[in-house]
Structures are given as structure tokens and as C-alpha cells.
Inverse folding.
């Protein structure tokens, strides 16, 4: 190959790297493919390191034991069959953690027979990590393996939970900023809000946490005075096995191109076919002396 | 291969252009602040670190504020007013700090704000209570003294005064007690322990009860005064603020040199009776507390009858207006204080900022008051309050004025920015003038050779070859405009004498061309000027073998050959 061809190939390779880098990421909130501050790529790196697996079908929940199932930032409703499978999973003695601030998971909670409900809102507090009422610092109120060595957790624009046994609460000087005007109005009363609630379902335990934002990269990388990292570590160590929902969660979000790439990556036949086509193209290029 | 590389580059360029297309209108591809917040969360990297784990501190402070009345009331009970004052000062400081916290955290509309306001009222009540209790204690001590001095008149008056002070104390205590349910409700909501506060309220009741017993005993022991021939009367026997009561008396047995009027056990005025022994004066109702008062006349060992009089309280009306002050964050406050139709003179008006006293001003003779306060950045409330118990007037509060102090541009920053602009403009002007001067110098250098001057010998003409060398230099340097000027000047140098009057350097290129239009140089000169204008004024570049040079050569050739007149012009 002459110099021009080498330069051309280098350019093509560099461009391809840039293109792949661009297309392999996304800015979708909570997406595991989002490496920006709104994404959960850091959390999923930790989950991968812990050997966590994506749950492809809720039928796969059957027969599990000593397993934690994470539903982070759910964005769609759960069919009755999936709720029933999840209930059986809990009754078998496993653990489910739902982190939701929108209330999307309330239907699921009802179907699970839980008394816990997510109360969507903008919980604000004078107990704040940053100069921002929405960066609420909350404190454990009861012992739990999730809260071992956790003295405080910093949230980011959380909602609240009702029902169950409240494990973590805001201080009394907190309020629901119902009109999101970043101001405590006369009709907004000071109160302590529950943020993490626990409830036994069968032999298992259901946790509901009203702020999935603590798992985003921005919060994980922020310099905090509270023990968010310990809390996350406790969460990932709660059970020996970890399953992560990707069918109803924003964490599985991807743009069209990325989604196609993920589909290809996750489908073995297509993966092999793509490899063969690529090799054929290279061979043809050499054969025709294009390169 | 070449075509393939080109194709690949074109495709890649197209792809990247498509990818960048959405950002064309907003070329700022990324800024940490333009995506600092989403509906789910805020970017911690853009937030100012604060780490305010203050809820416990605030609650502890509120608990202290709730507990503090107890030791103050206890000290009032044991008559240790100095200690009560000291405790009160600490209480005031804590209250002000708490109020600042509430304002800074923008919690004025919350239960914390309610707590702060109720606390402020309690603070005012406790301050009055300390003063009134100290006054009542003073009356108790005076009673002992007058009893030992066997002064029945003063003992008599002091029992009236004791009643008035006790009545005021009871009123203050009632106000304090009446707030208890609200305080308890707020405190319960905020998880505060109200035990000591309830003790304070209870202890206050005991103090009032003890004082009532003392006062009743004093009234029981009030001496009966012998009616002497020194008489005194007050007409009418009651009045309101602004009224004047006539105080008159007489002693007809002999002429007294002077008579002292004693109002509420204190010497008020000394009068000289007239030849008939009659004396009189007006008692204007001004700065005197409302309620019962007693007055009698005395001289030597003579005492008049004791005359009770009543000062009836009048409602007041207080207004407040605000206006931006002369300086940033300064706010002017003004208003009027009236007791019915009467403007209230020399009365203290307290200006509360965010429920705390920031300033006390005094009304003028027309009831008008004025003051100014400096506020911090943010939203504030201002209210004027009149509640001086020294006046026989019911307290009044103005409406609440909301004031927002916008962040100011720091003076130094404003001056720096302004100065920076001026400096930049100055430097720009200097640069422009210098550049212009260089151009003028270059032009003048060309011109100077043709400039007539009495003391200067005419400069030698630059030869066409020299001109061409210089032209080449300018052309190579990209100074096309200057190169064109150089050629034009070389023509002007050779354009004398002009056909017609005047000097060639005073004409525009077109005028010059017109002047030569009737000569054989007319056509080439007009062509030269046409191209010259394109380069000189139109900013067009010169080419390697530009027609400007060709026309210049043509004009020079005509000048060398000598001008010929062309019949009918050469247009």
C-alpha cells in the first residue's frame, strides 16, 4: 500500500472509532449507556463487576433464591403476569428493590399486595447537601442491612413513599414543593417524609426507594458528605445474585441506532452474520485492490 | 484508489455534517450549565457546595427559644430583674439569629415563620413584663418607705398607681397566655418539647396572682385622708390624648406662697396661688399612660383632697410607605401616625424588617416620620409598629410592605467593565489613527514630490522603473490598494501643467480624468481611473498582469509623447 492508502485507512479507522463512540452512547436519562451525569453507566459497571444479570423475561424469576431484583427508574406498567411472577419471587424469600420517583411503580406495588405507595413530588428540605433545597439529606431511622454504616444519604429532587416501615426519613424541616417554585409557600407544610420503606412479602422483602437519582453518574461522582457510596455498596451486597430489570426501566433506554446495535450484539445469529459480512467486505476490498 | 479515498472522505464528511447539523443554530456544543437540571434531578457539579445539616441546629435553637421564657419569668418571680434583663438580652440575640435563619432559608411562610412571629410577640411581652414588674416592685418598696415616713397622701396615691401597673402587667400576661395554644400547636408540629414553656405560662399566672394579693392588701391598708381646707378639682375628670384637663384649687385662709401638684406620687408642677388663694393649670394629655391616675396638691404639711382622673386610650392609625433609597439596598420608610384626627407628635415608631426591629424613628409635630434601612439581597417584609405604653394610645401596626432587593453589580466591577470598554475604545482609536497616519505618510511621501513649496526645491520625479520596482514590492506584500495609489501618484506627478486651472493633487481621480478628456491621454487615463477605483475603493485585488498596469503604461506613453488635443473630446 502506498502512503495515500495508509492515510486513507487511518482516517477511516479514526472516523469509525469516532462514529462508534458517538453511536454507542446516549443522553437518555438513567440509561446505562449514558456516560454523562444523567446516566447510570457507573452503577452498571459496578453491577457487571458484581456479576449482575439483565432480566430478559420475568419467567426467569422462577426458582430463584438469595437473589436481589433491581427495578431502577421504571417507565412503563407491569402486566399482571409479570407482577404475579414478581410476587412469587418475593414469596420465595428473595428481595426486590424498586427505586421510583414518578409513581409508575404504584400499580405494581398494588399487585404485589404491598401497602407502600410512591407519592410523586419535589421533596425539599433545609437539610441540604448543596445550596439547593432539592439536594435533600436524609437519615436512617431503623436498622437494616441496606443501611449498615450509613449515617446519611444525599438525594436529588426526591419524591416520598407512604406505607410500609419507614427506614429513611427527611428531617422535620422538609416540605413537598408542590408548585415546584423552589420556595416554601404558606400551603406547603413542614413535615418529615419517608424516603425508603420496607415491607415483607411472603418470605421475601420489598424495598421502595423514592429517588433513583442517587444512582446516576453525577451523584456518584459528586463530593458528598453523606454515605451514598456505602448505601449503594450495601445494596449490591444484599444478596448473592443480582438481577436487573431492563424491560420496564429507563436504565435500558437507548437511541434507535444504539438500540439496533444492542439488538445485534444480543442476538447471536445476527452477530455471526455481521462478522462474516465484514470479513467478506475486507476480502473483496483486497481482491479488487481497493486497498 | 484515489477515487475510493475521495468517496470515503466525502461520505465521512457528509456523515459528520449530518451529525453536527442539529448544533448549527446553537454552536455551543456543551456547557455544564446548559444542562444543569432535568425533570428528575439537578447536576451536582453545577451546584454550590453547602452541606447544611442544620435541621437539628434549627430545632435545637427553637427549643431554646421555647425554653427561655421560663428562666426569665422565674427571675421576675424572685424579683431578680438584673438577671431577668440579662437572660432577656440573650433571648433577644437568639431570636434575631433565628429570624435571620428563617429569612435566609426563605421559610417565612412556613411553621418556622409562624414560630418566629409568635416568638417575637412573646419577646415584646416579656420585655414589657420585666419593666412592669420592676415598676410594681418599685411601688412595693415606696409603699414601705412612705409607711415608715408616715406620709398618708403618697401612700394613698401609690395604691392607685399600684393598681394601674398591676392592671397593665395583667394585660401583658394575658396576651402572653393567650398565645399559648398557638405556640403549643406549632411546637407540637415541629416536634418541640413544650414543658418549660408551659411552666413559664403557669409561673406567670402565679406572679400575677401574688401581685394581685399584694395590691389588694395595699388598697385595704390605704389610709383615710383628712379633708383639709386645701381643695383641688379636675374638670373634666377624664380625657383622651390631645385633651387638656383643668386642674384648679384654692386655700382661702391665708395666702400661700406656692402649691405643688403631685401626679401619681411624683411632683408634677409648682403653682403660685393668686391673691384670693386660687391656683389653676391645664393638664394636657400627652405622654401619659392610659388608665387611672391620682393628683393632689400639697404645701408644707397641708394636703389637698386626692382627685382621681382617667385617661382613656385612643385608637391609632399608622401608615408605612417604602421607596428605593439613594444607595443600593437602601430603602426609605415613611408614614404617618394619627390618634383619631390628631397627628401624634414625638412618638417612637419601630420599623420591623422581617419581623425584627431594625430602626426606631420619631414622629414630627405633624405625625410624619421618616427613616431608611439597609437590607440584604433578597425578599424582605417591612412593617411599622407603634406600641409605646407611655402614650395613652392603643398600639397600631401598619400594613406589611414587601421589598425585594435585587443583586447589585458591584461598584468596582461596574467601574472595571466601564473602564475596560473605554480603554479598549481608546486603544482602538490609537491603533486606527496610527494606521491612518502611516497611510497618509505613505501617500504624502508619494505626494511630496509634486507638492509646491516656497522653501523646498521641486523633488525629482520617480522614474517609471523605480515606480515599477516599488509597485512589485507592494504587490508581493498584498498591498494592492497602496500599489494602485503609487501608480496614480506617479501619473499625477507627470500631469502638470493641468489643462485648466488648479493643482492635480486637489482633484479626485475622476475629475483628473475629466480634465484630460479633451487630450490624447483622456481615454487611457479614464480606463486607468476606472480600474484604480475598483482596486482603491472597491477593495478588489490586483492580478499578476493587471490592466491597471497596462492603462498606466498607456497614460505614461502619452505623457512622454506629449499631450495632443483631441477634437470633440475623448470620451
Amino acid at each position: 500500500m502506498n502512503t495515500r492508502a495508509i492515510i486513507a485507512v487511518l482516517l477511516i479507522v479514526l472516523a469509525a472509532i469516532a462514529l462508534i463512540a458517538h453511536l454507542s452512547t446516549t443522553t437518555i436519562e438513567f440509561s446505562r449507556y449514558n456516560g454523562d451525569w444523567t446516566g447510570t453507566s457507573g452503577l452498571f459497571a459496578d453491577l457487571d463487576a458484581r456479576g449482575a444479570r439483565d432480566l430478559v423475561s420475568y419467567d426467569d424469576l422462577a426458582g430463584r433464591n438469595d437473589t436481589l431484583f433491581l427495578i431502577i427508574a421504571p417507565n412503563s406498567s407491569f402486566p399482571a403476569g409479570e407482577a404475579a411472577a414478581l410476587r412469587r419471587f418475593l414469596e420465595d424469600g428473595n428481595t426486590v428493590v424498586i427505586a421510583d420517583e414518578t409513581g409508575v411503580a404504584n400499580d405494581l406495588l398494588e399487585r404485589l399486595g404491598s401497602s407502600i405507595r410512591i407519592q410523586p413530588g419535589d421533596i425539599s428540605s433545609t437539610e441540604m447537601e448543596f445550596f439547593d433545597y432539592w439536594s435533600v439529606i436524609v437519615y436512617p431511622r431503623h436498622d437494616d442491612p441496606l443501611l449498615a454504616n450509613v449515617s446519611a444519604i444525599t438525594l436529588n429532587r426526591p419524591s416520598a413513599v407512604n406505607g410500609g416501615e419507614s427506614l429513611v426519613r427527611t428531617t422535620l424541616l422538609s416540605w413537598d414543593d408542590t408548585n415546584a417554585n423552589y420556595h416554601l409557600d404558606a400551603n406547603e407544610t413542614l413535615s418529615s417524609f419517608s424516603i425508603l420503606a420496607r415491607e415483607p412479602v411472603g418470605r421475601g422483602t420489598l424495598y421502595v426507594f423514592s429517588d433513583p437519582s442517587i444512582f446516576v453518574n453525577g451523584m456518584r461522582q459528586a463530593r458528598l458528605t453523606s454515605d451514598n457510596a456505602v448505601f449503594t455498596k450495601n445494596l449490591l451486597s444484599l444478596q448473592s445474585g443480582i438481577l436487573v430489570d431492563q424491560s420496564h426501566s429507563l436504565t435500558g433506554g437507548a437511541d434507535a441506532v444504539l438500540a439496533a446495535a444492542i439488538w445485534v450484539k444480543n442476538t447471536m445469529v445476527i452477530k455471526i452474520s455481521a462478522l462474516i459480512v465484514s470479513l467478506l467486505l475486507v476480502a473483496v476490498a483486497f481482491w479488487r485492490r481497493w486497498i | 484508489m484515489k477515487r475510493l479515498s475521495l468517496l470515503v472522505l466525502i461520505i465521512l464528511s457528509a456523515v459528520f455534517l449530518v451529525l453536527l447539523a442539529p448544533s448549527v443554530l446553537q454552536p455551543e456544543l456543551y456547557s455544564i450549565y446548559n444542562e444543569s437540571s432535568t425533570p428528575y434531578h439537578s447536576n451536582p457539579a453545577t451546584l454550590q457546595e453547602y452541606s447544611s445539616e442544620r435541621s437539628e441546629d434549627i430545632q435545637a435553637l427553637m427549643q431554646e427559644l421555647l425554653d427561655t421564657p421560663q428562666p426569665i419569668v422565674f427571675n421576675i418571680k424572685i424579683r431578680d430583674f438584673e438577671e431577668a434583663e440579662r437572660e432577656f438580652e440573650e433571648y433577644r440575640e437568639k431570636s434575631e439569629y433565628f429570624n435571620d435563619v428563617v429569612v435566609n432559608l426563605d421559610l417565612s411562610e412556613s411553621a418556622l415563620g409562624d414560630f418566629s412571629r409568635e416568638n417575637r410577640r412573646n419577646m415584646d411581652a416579656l420585655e414589657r413584663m420585666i419593666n412592669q414588674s420592676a415598676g410594681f416592685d418599685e411601688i412595693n418598696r415606696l409603699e414601705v418607705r412612705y409607711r415608715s415616713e408616715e406620709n398618708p397622701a403618697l401612700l394613698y396615691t401609690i395604691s392607685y398607681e399600684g393598681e394601674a401597673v398591676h392592671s397593665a402587667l395583667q394585660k401583658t400576661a394575658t396576651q402572653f397566655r393567650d398565645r399559648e395554644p398557638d405556640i403549643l400547636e406549632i411546637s407540637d408540629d415541629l416536634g418541640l418539647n413544650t414543658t418549660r414553656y408551659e411552666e413559664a405560662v403557669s409561673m406567670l399566672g402565679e406572679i400575677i396572682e401574688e401581685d394581685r394579693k399584694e395590691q389588694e392588701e395595699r388598697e385595704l391598708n390605704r389610709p383615710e385622708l383628712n379633708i383639709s381646707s386645701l381643695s383641688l378639682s379636675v374638670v373634666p375628670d377624664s380625657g383622651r390624648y390631645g385633651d387638656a384637663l383643668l386642674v384648679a384649687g384654692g386655700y382661702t385662709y391665708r395666702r400661700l406662697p406656692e402649691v405643688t401638684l403631685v401626679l401619681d406620687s411624683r411632683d408634677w408642677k409648682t403653682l403660685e396661688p393668686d391673691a384670693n388663694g386660687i391656683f389653676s393649670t391645664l393638664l394636657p394629655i400627652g405622654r401619659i399612660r392610659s388608665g387611672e391616675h391620682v393628683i393632689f396638691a400639697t404645701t408644707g404639711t397641708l394636703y389637698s383632697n386626692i382627685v382621681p382622673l382617667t385617661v382613656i386610650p385612643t385608637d391609632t392609625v399608622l401608615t408605612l410607605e417604602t421607596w428605593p433609597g439613594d444607595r443600593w439596598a437602601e430603602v426609605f420608610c415613611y408614614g404617618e401616625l394619627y390618634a383619631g384626627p390628631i397627628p401624634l407628635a414625638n412618638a417612637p415608631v419601630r420599623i420591623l424588617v422581617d419581623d425584627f426591629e431594625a430602626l426606631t424613628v420619631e414622629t414630627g409635630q405633624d405625625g410624619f416620620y421618616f427613616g431608611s434601612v439597609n437590607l440584604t439581597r433578597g425578599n424582605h417584609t417591612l412593617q411599622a409598629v407603634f406600641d409605646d405604653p407611655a402614650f395613652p394610645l392603643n398600639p397600631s401596626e401598619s400594613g406589611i410592605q414587601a421589598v425585594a432587593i435585587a443583586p447589585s453589580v458591584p461598584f468596582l466591577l461596574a467601574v472595571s467593565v466601564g473602564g475596560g470598554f473605554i480603554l479598549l475604545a481608546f486603544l482602538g482609536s490609537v491603533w486606527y489613527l496610527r494606521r491612518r497616519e502611516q497611510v497618509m505618510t505613505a501617500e504624502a511621501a508619494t505626494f511630496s514630490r509634486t507638492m509646491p513649496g516656497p522653501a523646498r526645491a521641486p523633488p525629482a520625479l520617480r522614474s517609471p522603473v523605480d515606480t515599477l520596482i516599488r509597485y512589485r514590492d507592494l504587490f508581493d506584500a498584498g498591498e494592492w490598494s497602496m500599489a494602485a495609489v503609487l501608480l496614480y501618484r506617479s501619473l499625477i506627478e507627470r500631469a502638470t501643467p493641468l489643462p485648466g486651472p488648479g493643482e492635480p493633487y486637489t482633484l479626485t481621480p475622476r475629475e483628473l480624468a475629466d480634465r484630460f478628456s479633451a487630450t490624447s491621454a483622456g481615454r487611457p487615463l479614464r480606463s486607468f481611473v476606472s480600474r484604480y477605483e475598483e482596486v482603491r475603493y472597491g477593495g478588489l485585488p490586483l492580478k499578476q498582469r493587471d490592466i491597471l498596469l497596462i492603462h498606466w503604461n498607456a497614460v505614461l506613453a502619452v505623457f512622454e509623447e506629449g499631450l495632443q488635443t483631441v477634437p470633440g473630446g475623448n470620451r
User: Anything to note?
Assistant: The radius of gyration of chain B is 49 Å.
